[in-house]
Amino acid sequence: MFPPAFFGGVGAPELVIILFVFSLPVALVLLAGVLHAARSQQSSSDRALEELRIAYARGEMDEAEFERRKQTLESE
């Protein structure tokens, strides 16, 4: 239907390479975003546990309250 040199002669193999080259950076950016979100969620949980330990060390709560809150944080 079209001559072989239609659209400058770009065939299927070249098109696949071009699509790969342009989609690879997009995939890497998306992967970095997912990994960053996972790490920040984990670090916020670690900060909450640290604050809980500090409050327990200050005597602001008894051991039963500490264990209950710790289990709640670890289950999230």
Automatic annotation (TrEMBL):
Domain SHOCT stretches: 48-73
Keywords, comma-separated and alphabetical: Membrane, Transmembrane, Transmembrane helix
Pfam family, any one: SHOCT
Recorded superkingdom: Archaea
Record InterPro entries: SHOCT (IPR018649)
Transmembrane segments: 15-38
Protein name in UniProt: SHOCT domain-containing protein
Lineage: Archaea, Methanobacteriati, Methanobacteriota, Stenosarchaea group, Halobacteria
